[in-house]
Amino acid sequence: MEHRIERIKKQLHSQSYKLTPQREATVRVLLEREEDHLSAEDVYLLVKEKAPEIGLATVYRTLELLSELKIVDKINFGDGVSRYDLRKEGAKHFHHHLVCVECGSVEEIENDLLEDVEKIVQRDWGFQVQDHRLTFHGICKQCQKSAVKTT
Amino acid sequence: MEHRIERIKKQLHSQSYKLTPQREATVRVLLEREEDHLSAEDVYLLVKEKAPEIGLATVYRTLELLSELKIVDKINFGDGVSRYDLRKEGAKHFHHHLVCVECGSVEEIENDLLEDVEKIVQRDWGFQVQDHRLTFHGICKQCQKSAVKTT
DNA sequence: TATTAAATTATAATTATTTTAAATATCTAC
DNA sequence: GTAGATATTTAAAATAATTATAATTTAATA
Question: Which nucleotide shows the minimum CA-to-C1' distance to residue B41?
Fold first, then answer.
């Protein structure tokens, strides 16, 4: 954890941004809840536990900054709020998501399943791919099981 | 065009929804601008030309309804507004998008590039895929050309 | 063509996010 | 260690997107 904070501190400094206590608290929340997909409001409430004086606008600004630096990815699952997802260390690509339309759970897929597809896009459409967003909507394992039970 | 409106009318009636002039005007705008990715506001302004008395809330409700009936797909490119994209007739899957980070243009890919990937997700993650959202971010053909020129 | 449930209008309310200006704090260089 | 320049935060207000409300109107059916 401390190691990752140090790294982020360096990333900020290299662009002459400062690591303020508010920013550090925000990053810590993101690290602690790495598996989740928190909205700005969610992050705000959690950061408030560490740094009660922080304002919501600061959280928004911090998340925006981390997003620019590619430390977090901003995603939207269509529910009206932006969510922020920490990039895995050393990950070349943004990971994919499985959103269950029954229970709303969100699972992550680390494997890069799009290598071939990106090659095709590059070759056949002449589009120089930099990043992607891939989300599947469907029924998760758990909900499939429950559906069988109740049938 | 008239044929597609008729079909949509039947789809509405089959769920006991009415095809009001406002809804028809909205659908016509979507048909006329099939290649675009209009926001609710965009649609509203265009519909107003045909039906000046329409309210923005009605446009939102209509788009929401069309979305439920799978006549349009609601997408979000991360710019804070939802966009509405007419489903191609007979398309089994939602098409993909290429968003240029330089000029903001959005290109559509009709081909289903995810068949294999969906099989893998189904098999290895036990996730029953119903739909997907795939967007690539990068540099479009035109912007690549201009970049070469200015270098 | 009268009926009835569904839909629309206009307005207000919510929710998410961003901006502003004044006050404060971080990091660098000394 | 500390001053100073600059970045950052705070708090509040503004903006933007979307949804809800209640009264009025209208589309489709019999």
Answer: D17
Looking at residue B148, what is its pLDDT? 79
Q: What is the pTM of this model?
A: 0.87
Residues 6 or more apart whose CB falls under 8 angstroms from that of B114 comprise A117, B93, B96, B132, B134
Residue from B127, B137, B140 to probe the interface with A (highest A Cβ count within 10 Å) = B127
Chain D nucleotides close to protein (CB under 7 A) are 7-13, 16-21, 26-29
The Cα angle at residue A136 between residues A133 and A140, in degrees rounded to 5: 140
B81 CB-to-strand D distance under 7 Å: yes
The sign of the CA dihedral A131, A137, A141, A143 is positive
- Name residues whose C-beta falls within 8 Å of residue A61's C-beta, 6 or more positions apart in sequence: none
Cβ neighbours, 10 Å, residue A44: 20
Nucleotide nearest B83 (Cα, C1'): D17
Instruction: Say how far apart CA B17 and CA B59 lie, in whole Å.
Output: 15
Distance A17 CA to C24 C1' (A): 16
DSSP B94: P
Residues in B touching A95 (Cβ below 8 Å): none
Contacts for B22 with CB less than 8 Å, ≥ 6 apart: B47, B51, B54, B58, B62
Query: Which residue in the set B98, B125, B133 is minimally distant from A135, CB to CB?
Result: B133
Contact A41, A56 (CB under 8 A): yes
How far apart, in whole angstroms, are the C-alpha atoms of residue A97 and residue A107?
A: 6
How does pLDDT run across A64-80, given as a tens digit for each residue? 999 999 999 999 998 88
